[in-house]
Amino acid sequence: MKVLSRRTLLGAAAVLIAVGAAVGVRAAGGSESAAAAVGGPGLGQLSGLLPRNHLTEESAIQVNLSKETARLPLYKGRADGQTVWYVLLDASDSGVAHDLGVNYAPKLGNIGIGCPQCVQTVTLDSPTPDQNRFGQAVVNFQGAPDFSPTRIATPGPGGFPLSRFQPGAVARPGYSPFIRIAGSSTVYSAPIVATGDGPFDVVHHTNTGDRVLGIHIAGKSAPGRFAESWVDLLFVKGFDAGQPIVYISTDAGQPLSAVLERSTYVPALDRAAYNGGDDFLGSARERLFGFINGQTGSKNPQSQGFVHLVKDGHASEDASAGNTGLINALRHGGDLLNVFGDFPTFKDPRHAQAYSPLWDAQLGLWTPKAVREGLNRRQIDEVRVFNLAATRPDLLTGVDPATGKPAPYGSVGVDINCAVIGFTAKPPTANLAQPAPGSQFPPR
Questions:
Q1: 3-state secondary structure of 141
Q2: End-to-end CA gap in the chain
Q3: Residue 237 near residue 218, CB atoms below 8 Å
Q4: Are 378 and 302 in contact (CB under 8 A)?
Q5: What is the tens place of the pLDDT at every residue in 385-422?
Q6: Residue 107 φ then ψ, to 5°
Q7: pLDDT tens digits along 140-160
Q8: CA 113 to chain centre
Q9: In sequence order, what DSSP letters do the residues of 189-247 get, joined into one string?
Q10: Mean pLDDT rounded to a whole number for the chain
Q11: Strand, coil or helix: what is 398?
Q12: What whole-number distance in Å separates Cα of residue 54 and Cα of residue 422?
């Protein structure tokens, strides 16, 4: 399969070079305090199993913070005549979400507005009792990802922009991670993470997603029992309302996003309703805040962003359970450390139920002044980021993807599918600040 045309890659590379030129891609190093030696303040629990009362994804079997993995139930399906394996992460119906132990995301009901390709209609087998006494019915997908391409993330002279990149997984025709079962209105986030009947490549990911670090396919269940299959997925660290969180990145609407997120490139997602539409009528999206040129340094408690991920997060390497250098770097904060918007644990139901796993990226570009004075510090709260963009354009601006130059802050047309899994300290319950006048859409 032809993954990307030469023209597409060169065009994307030109944009990235422009971004680098616009900011000089020079990240302030910051101080390296004793606290930073254990990952820096604010990352929460760094080892052992995450307590179950810290999970939003209640169906998760375990979250292992020492191994950077979330172990999730794995379900069997079919697509294009082959076996596929998928996970369930979110549902648009509250009762269904509660029953399945997944995140409730009512905005997913809007996923097909103006974009029928954003949601695929699937069918369920109807097994006889002899075929299935106790267990799932096989889901028939319209399409699946192609996991055979080699993921490429070659650092540039300053780390980021990348000098060369290519997604390691690409949607085949008909594939979307968002599904609706024929005859039902409920929309699920059900990304396919592996294809075939095994053995599964969890080192170079030729038939698995780039975050798959382990797979167990259960044998035949004993009478009266259920033998469960599972997958270990490399999670991602971030922040919401001042609290450290973990989430799973599975799909992205642009090639570069898919490379940085180690996810499947699904072009249709960038057409989901709709750019800049969080909290407005018909939106399927929620806001996510990333930073091009935050500080770097593996022991720097202020590090964050694209340059940091490439320099300090082993972004060019394959993720595997045996790559302990990558695992330990991410454990101690080597991720993008994006800031999320609304979260399922918020006390205000309006904000809790505004959560969506489809995140509309708002990318921040620290100005030369901010970089020079070391003010490109780690951000951890949505409202504080919005207030900074609204009141201090001398420090933080948006970025124009077409030119790489500063632009008004807001949506940049990049969507990523990231289901939240839980929190590693306290639950996010409310933002840390009140919105500056005119910085957001009411009600707040």
A1: coil
A2: 47
A3: no
A4: yes
A5: 999 999 999 999 999 876 778 999 999 999 999 999 99
A6: -60, -20
A7: 999 999 999 999 999 999 899
A8: 22
A9: E--EEEESSS---SSS-SSB-TTEEEEE---PPPTT--PPPEEEEE-EEEEETTEEEEE
A10: 90
A11: strand
A12: 5
- Angle (CA) 422-333-232 rounded to 5° is 50
**Residue 256 one-letter amino acid:** L
Q: 286-291 and 411-423: which strand pairing?
A: unpaired
Strands 396-399 and 411-423: unpaired
DSSP state of 429: -
CA–CA dist 317, 296 (Å, integer): 18
DSSP string, 322-356: T-HHHHHHHHTT-S---EE---TT-SSHHHHTT--
Contact call for residues 41 and 32 (beta carbons, < 8 A):
no
- Tell me how far the alpha carbon of residue 70 is from its chain's centroid: 13
Write the CA distances from 142 to 62, 77, 160, 252, integer angstroms: 30, 11, 36, 19
Q: Which two three-digit tokens encode residue 87?
A: 């996970």
Residues in the chain: 444
Separation CA 264–CA 416 (nearest Å): 10
Distance, CA of 290 to CA of 302 (rounded, Å): 14
Supply 317's token pair: 């390497």
- Alpha-carbon distance of 188 to 86, in angstroms, equals 11
Angle (nearest 5°) at CA 428 between 424 and 430: 165
Phi, psi of 294 (to 5 degrees): -70, -175
CA distance 306 to 325: 19
- pLDDT tens figures, 157-187: 989 989 999 999 999 999 999 999 999 999 9
Q: Give CA angle at 141 (165, 264), nearest 5°.
A: 15
Tokens of 377: 């510090």
- For residue 147 the two structure tokens come to 């996991």
User: β-pairing, 152-156 with 159-166?
Assistant: antiparallel
Residue type, 49: L
Sign of the CA dihedral running 262, 54, 305, 284? positive
Encoded amino acid at 189, one letter: S
Q: Exposed (0-12), middle (13-18) or buried (19+): which is 340, by Cβ within 10 Å?
A: buried
Sheet containing 69-73, strands listed edge to edge, beginning at the edge strand earlier in sequence: 62-64, 69-73, 230-234, 212-216
